[in-house]
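Hello support,

Our group uses your service weekly, and this is the first time we've seen a run hang past the timeout. The protein is Alpha/beta fold hydrolase. I'm not sure whether the cause is the sequence or the server load. Input pasted verbatim:
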Amino acid sequence: MLIKTIAAVAATLMLGHAAAADHPAFKVDVTGSGAPIILIPGLASSGSVWDGTVAHYCASGKYQCHVLTLAGFAGQPAIKEALLPAAEQQLSAYIADNKFNHPVVIGHSLGGYLGMKLAADHPEQVGKLVIVDSLPALGATQAPNITRAQLKQMADGMAASMKAQDAETFRTSQLRTLRTMITKQEDIDRALNTGKSSDRDTVINSMAELMAADLRDDVSRIKAPTLVMGTWIAYKDYAPKEAITAVYTTQYAKLQGVRVEMADNARHFIMYDDPTWMYDRIDNFLN
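Update from on-call engineer: The timeout came from a worker crash unrelated to the input. Re-ran successfully.
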């Protein structure tokens, strides 16, 4: 019996290593047991942004959390190919290889875009989709009639400008951006540290791909019930809540049955700024 047990454990470890080799575009940390939830962090973020979410959902035996950290982010080795297409295809394969039955997929920011793209391209794989402050066409927020060619041109220009920055200017720009996205200094510092340990080219190229993307038509292919949680208070000096909410509802107009909720007390990193509000919305959505 002992020999069989040791053999079974060894086989499990070998399978785990084989599975990891099959998805170099991300690392996965698994917690708990039960129905699978896949959590995808955003640009230059570690899977640790979901620590509170994992504690909330995957400690009771109801859910098992599969937390990704994407290649090139937060100290993970970068890959040569474009990150987002590779991550999408490898995540689809990960779901199939593990025989997950319509897992819940939760993504923040760039991770929300990746979850959206997965659900649109592989609609049969995703059970429920939760998008934390991400849009189908981020580059079109202020110019809704912009074309895909114009989005690509804008994104390429942004990437070239970022790559031309020296290290100190790039870091200062990151800090300035994070201060608009997160309220508490300790959370800003945490996000800044993961940014420091991220591959600069991967960050810039992934941001450019996100800015060039337009999924406003593609979301019509999503079959999964979808919850979108957006934020507005960081932009209150520029537009009222109603106008910012309208950006979300308009961009998701072709996603049938989508539920859009807007946080009143959280900036972009809702899981840091107002986790109680976020959990309440997700709880109601999953139940």
